[in-house]
Amino acid sequence: MLSQLLPNRRDFPADDPIFALNAEAQSRAAKGESVVNATVGALLDDNGQLVILDTVMELWRELTSKEIAPYAPIAGDPAYLTALVRRYWPELSHHGSGCATPGGSGALALSIRNFLEPGQALLTLAPYWGPYATIALENGAHLETFPYPEPGHTLDSMAFMQKAETLIRHQGRLLIWLNDPCHNPTGRSSSPASRGAIFEALRQLCHLGPITLLLDLAYLEYTANPGDVMAALQDYATFAKEGKVLVGASLSVSKSLTLYGARAGALVFPWTQDAPLQAALAMSCRGIFSNAPRAPQSLIVKLAKDGKAQARLADEHRHWSQKLQVRAQALSDSLRSEALPGIPWQGGFFVTLPADHPKAVADRLKGHGVFVVPMPEGLRVGICGLKAEDTPRFAKAYKECV
Ligand SMILES: Cc1ncc(COP(=O)(O)O)c(C=O)c1O
User: Fold this and answer.
1) Does domain 2-52+310-401 have CATH number 3.90.1150.10?
2) Model confidence pTM above 0.90
């Protein structure tokens, strides 16, 4: 009956597939079975408990009623937007044009509404974070993909150029989502050469129509090499300042501050102060969710004024980055012990393992009590929830099932 009422929803799965897998893993564990659940998308400690950054919660507890209860400005508190942007580009004194959004998801959705016409496609690299497809669909768009380079390879510049050119010639405009650095789900970052290939293609295509390059920055605090992350951000800033392509960022405090449930993020264009763009973003906010939650905005503003809290937070990020690095290394070593190739990790909560028939392999792994998320390009393994001591069992099962 419902499908008759909502005819455009007929193809939607009843359950989010990742939630369904996670629920199955948890229910088997609750019955006493020993399971390895690598489907989780939040950072867990080695006891399986959600990691919540102490520094952030201390600041949260200090918030006053007036920092929580009133509506935030429609486009967000400008001090919040600037503070968030300065976490990644500290040299900037202003956030440019932008608005606060409910999480990075809200920012991604708003980018479609403002930079594509209904029915058009946005371009991203595959594999990608699964909800990209849902966010696109829900906002009247769809995804076109280009392969994420294999480890040690550079993005195929000619093929990327062709793909982007076909789209921009067809649509008259182009929106690209680039989840870089610290990509979900490969756990890798674009090499300088791959970034350069993308920049060069966009430089050559920008005369065909407006191009928006949106960086989806969700996992930058969790990396083996903070210096590489900063270098990538500087590359993007330099490209943005050329002024040929509109460069923006989808920002989120979900992973970065472990404030998943606070639903705070931002869509920002730090190198552009443009009144019509600002007005359009504010209009989108008003029309979709009115304004984003006040409390996390107040918290970020507080954090930006508190050097000691920033130092404590940096220590916590370092600690958890090291934990993720240990887990990734343990997984790689365990795979090698099974005579399989290791897996590189540069940042974020996941790695992707190869599989010719990912769904079938994931199903077989369940028979070994091991849960992963199948994607068309392989298996998403959440090292954010995978203990180092479970990696030998994981690798053995993977070898048997793949
Ligand atoms: C790649 C990527 N982008 C964006 C997000 C957005 O998260 P949120 O809407 O919670 O800020 C996530 C969350 O998992 C993600 O993995």
Assistant:
1) yes
2) yes
